Amino acid sequence: MVENARSINIAAGILLAIGILYIVGPLYLTLSTASQSYEYMLQNGLAWVPGTELFANMGKVINDTRIPIQMLNSMIVAFSNALATCALSFLSAYAIVYFRIRWAGVVFALILATIMLPLDIRVITTYQVASNIFSPLNAVLDVTGLNDLIAGAFGAPVHLELSVLNTHFGLIAPLVAHGTGTFLFRQFFMTLPKDLFKAARMDGAGPIRFLFDILLPLARPSVASLFVLTFLSGWTQYLWPLVGASTPDMQTAVVGLARLVPDADGQVPDFPMIMAGAVLVSLVPLTMIALLQRFLVQGLVLSEK
Amino acid sequence: MSSESSLFGHRWLPLLLVAPLMLLIVLFFYVPVFQAFYWSFFLEQPFGGGSEFVGLQNFRRVLTDPEFWAATGRTVVFMLTASSLAVIVPLMLAIAADRKIGLSYAARNILVWPKGIAGASIGVVFAFIFNPFVGLMAPLNTLFPGLWNPGIDGTDAFVTLVAAHVWSGIPFNFVILLAGLRSIPPTMYQAAAMDGAGPWRRIFDVQLPLIMPQLFLTFVLEFTESITSVFALIDTITGGGPGGSTSLLVYKIYVDGFRGFDLSGASTQTAILMVFVLLLAACQFVFLGRRLNYER
User: Fold this and answer.
1) Which of A12, A66, A229, A279 could bond to B96 as cystine, CB 3.0-4.6 Å?
2) Structurally, how many domains does chain A consist of?
3) CB of B119 closer than 8 Å to CB of B233
4) What start-end ranges are recorded for coiled-coil regions in this protein (chain A) (predicted)?
5) Are A38 and A109 found together in one domain?
6) Domain spanning B65-291: CATH 3.40.50.10260
């Protein structure tokens, strides 16, 4: 099709240039300020030209703050979140699609409903549950009167207590309790031809064999997409790690970065050092995006359908 | 073969397969959601000090608190401004990037980057860039004193939040909308061109109507997203200030619950916010969803 589209192409070019500038501008200013000294920043404000202090500032962050161990925490949280979400969602979607069970629709609806109310909204009571993960069990025993029976028989009611606050498990588990993965895999399984299943059955494959030898290899791109997506989401969490971890050594890097900024007004904070921290904290997820962008984009599109 | 054989017939295996995820979801989703509503009818003492049924008293207290209504008002204003911008800006970028021009390949790559940068990280960065003394506006501030100071002027602080929110929201909305645009069959454009519609006209007559499902979806998700994810931005950029002018509901709940130890008040506000979010989604489906034609 040949037509004169000059005006719209010029407009589109300008628009994209502005968009790229909007995204890259703050990132560039972060990097250039991170490479200047504190004194330079006091005199000139934010740096438009890069300096030579980048590694000195990063060294300050690595030696004087808890960011290194917090980055390890972020790594553990993001990786486990991605792994657990992929594995558990894959299994539950498999059960929902490939088994003759009457409650499949109900379970899927219950899982899907989690998408409506994000963790940030229910943080207060999630914190309470995490402070004693047996509290729902205790409440059920109390309400059903079972505890009265137990108290009558053994002399004391059952009251179990286990806090997962300030543990890696506590930071990860509420993130995994989410329906996007199950939804994504269910959609994927539905697109596979029914004959695949019949052929596998005819060849004598049982449920476990079918899962590992046929579905898993086929689903590899979907798994990779979900992995990238949940890894990034785990790394960038803020509110839950902020309340779920109480000691600096258990906090994630993003929370640690926010804590680098002093609360009190007065002296100008060491912005070059803080910006160097922001660069360090964003290094892992940005590298991941650069290397695995195909999967990220695919994951975003799949999670929508 | 009958349809019976197109599914496995095991009884216990599927139960075992969904159990781990269901356990986590019940424990960390349904119990907290239930507890928020349950606690809104009780007066909870912090640190397990017991509780007392008070009926609707918590709701009466929250609903007569002017601070609550102020925070709700700010939440709605933020939702409308920030989420509209967070959809319209990526929409324009997606329409531009859908054209085959030199910059569109670079844009498709670069515009996804913010996905890897935490809201709190970009909050720290924006707090610095918009710092009145050393940031971007510092030179202008020396020329016109008092022109820009998010530490004193609530509007300036609000604008900074919106700018940071739109920045972080670009990747998802851009990718979804671009995918929608790219799935429009080329024959549609050819047919429109035959009828004499130029490239500008086709934006409104072909592209926008055909990506309505994606546009609708981004709006639905963006409304919830703007209400919740703004927490990281508020906590790192403004701290709710100046003078509470950027204290949105999600931030107020956190402050009331974790700093004021007012568990009942925080739970009641959580319950109200949940109902609000669910109603919002329902409204959008009823009023917007009905007019959409998902068939291609």
Assistant:
1) A12
2) 2
3) yes
4) none
5) no
6) no
- Single-letter amino acid, residue A288: M
Collapsed DSSP state (helix, strand, coil) of residue A99: strand
Q: Angle between the A67-98 and A253-260 helix axes, to the nearest 10 degrees?
A: 140
B85-134 per-position pLDDT tens digit: 999 999 999 999 888 888 888 888 888 889 888 888 899 899 888 888 78
H-helix segments, chain B: 12-25, 31-39, 57-63, 66-97, 102-110, 119-129, 138-143, 154-182, 186-194, 199-202, 208-210, 212-228, 230-233, 249-254, 263-283
* Same domain as A146, residue A3: no
Question: Tell me, what CATH number does A203's domain have?
Answer: 1.10.3720.10
From the list A23, A89, A285, the residue facing B21 with the nearest CB is A89
DSSP assignment string, B166-202: HHHHHHHHHHHHHHHHHTS-HHHHHHHHHTT--HHHH
Q: Report the distance separating Cα A26 and Cα A257, nearest Å.
A: 17
Identity of the residue in B122, B199, B250 whose CB atom sits nearest the CB atom of A5: B199
Q: Do residues A178 and A97 both lie within one domain?
A: yes
pTM of the model: 0.89
Domain final residue pick, A10, A35, A64 = A64
Residue A163 has pLDDT above 60, yes or no: yes
Q: Which is nearest to B81 in space by CA: B150, B168, B161, B154?
A: B161
Instruction: Report how many Cβ contacts below 8 Å link chain A to chain B.
Output: 313
Locate the domains of chain B by residue range. Answer: 65-291
Which among A41, A236, A297 has the least Cβ separation from residue B112? A297
Q: Which of B20, B71, B240, B38 is nearest to A125 (CA)?
A: B38
d(CA B206, CA B195): 12
What is the structure's pLDDT at B164?
92
Q: Crossing angle, helix A168-176 and helix B12-25, to 10 degrees?
A: 110
Residue in B with minimal Cα distance to A207: B8
Q: How far is B119 from chain A (nearest CA, A)?
A: 7
Cα–Cα distance between B130 and B164 in angstroms, integer?
A: 11
| Choice among A130-139, A218-227, A296-305 with the minimum mean pLDDT | A296-305
Q: Is B154 exposed, middle or buried (0-12, 13-18, 19+ CB in 10 A)?
A: middle
Q: Verify that A159 and A39 share a domain, yes or no.
A: no
pLDDT (tens digit, 9 = 90+) per residue, A76-130? 999 999 999 999 999 999 999 988 888 888 999 999 888 888 898 889 889 988 9
Query: Which residues touch A206 (CB under 8 Å, ≥6 apart)?
Result: none
Task: Indicate the residue of B15, B29, B36 with minimum beta-carbon distance to A114.
Answer: B29
Same-domain pairing of A33 and A131 = no
From A81, A107, A82, A113, select the one nearest A95 (Cα to Cα): A107
- With contacts defined as CB-CB under 8 Å, which chain A residues touch B270? 121-122, 124-125
Task: Report the alpha-carbon distance of residue B90 to residue B105 in Å, rounded.
Answer: 15
- Residue B261, chain A, CB below 8 Å: the answer is no
Among candidate residues A64, A82, A107, the one where a domain is terminated: A64
For residues A266 and A127, state if they share a domain: yes
Instruction: Tell me which of B4, B17, B143 to substitute to probe the interface with A (most A C-beta atoms closer than 10 Å).
Output: B17
Domain interval for residue A297: 65-302
Cα separation of the two ends of chain B: 33
CB contact under 8 A, B93 and A117: no
